[in-house]
Amino acid sequence: NRRQLGEALERNELSLLEGILRLHLLWFDNDTRGEISDQWNEFLAKMGKNCTTPRRLLIQLQKKFSCSPSFMEDMNADQICIGTILEDGYATDFMCCIIARLAGEHFNMPFDVVRFQGEFVLLRAGTLYSPSHQWGEMPNPEPGIHIWSTEELLSLVAAMLFSCAVSSDSFRYIYTIGSCMLHNRNDLKFLPYPYGGTTNGGNA
Predict the structure, then answer these.
(1) Which residues of 28-59 are buried (b: 16+ CB within 10 A; e: fewer)?
(2) How many Å is the maximal CA-CA distance in the chain?
(3) What is the pLDDT along the chain (204 residues), one digit of tens a residue?
(4) What is d(CA 63, CA 65) in angstroms, rounded to the nearest whole number?
């Protein structure tokens, strides 16, 4: 799974949904793809009756999820992995935006994900919506604001999971996710000792 995921990320072959499903399984490797897909489909089914407009979709998301800043000190993988988010209702702002973008695509209400004034927000028809502020509207962005691509969002999710692995001092997850981010290369010398780098004396 790690090798296939690393290759797919390198080749930009993954849809946003497929990517976050597989990144969840990289961390929670006892889960199955079918279980997480069922969670997602059940979530969409419950949302469906009330998602007649973009604003109503965001209201449903506000009821379902509590949002936290992306780079808070106590961020953990449960707020990044799609399965635990759907189960517990807690997510980082970028994961709230990813879920909203995917739900919007499903209900034919497209949103873009951008970063504005230090937080991840949605962009639709010139208006920004902030998950950190109950999906409230924000001032119109400047022309040319950068829209995050699928590949950039998946790289962000992987990087944040890697950060969680380092902060939790888990060699297993550091190696697994780090190798995936390096597209299956085994050179982890950029990591501090003992994860891949050397000691101060230069010995591995």
Answers:
(1) beebeeeebeebbeebeeebeeebeebeebbe
(2) 63
(3) 656 666 666 667 789 999 999 899 988 989 999 999 999 999 999 998 788 899 999 999 999 999 977 666 667 899 999 999 999 999 999 999 999 999 999 999 999 999 998 899 999 998 999 999 999 998 877 788 999 999 999 989 988 888 887 776 666 666 666 666 665 455 556 565 665 555 554 444
(4) 6
First to last CA, the chain: 28
Q: Cα–Cα distance between 121 and 130 in angstroms, integer?
A: 5
Q: Could you tell me if 64 and 45 are in contact, meaning their C-beta atoms sit under 8 angstroms apart?
A: no
Question: Which amino acid, one-letter code, is at 151?
Answer: E
Tokens, residue 159 = 């990087």
Domain boundaries, the chain: 2-167
List strand residue ranges (DSSP E) for 127-190, in order: 127-130, 136-138
Distance CA 167, CA 64 (A): 28
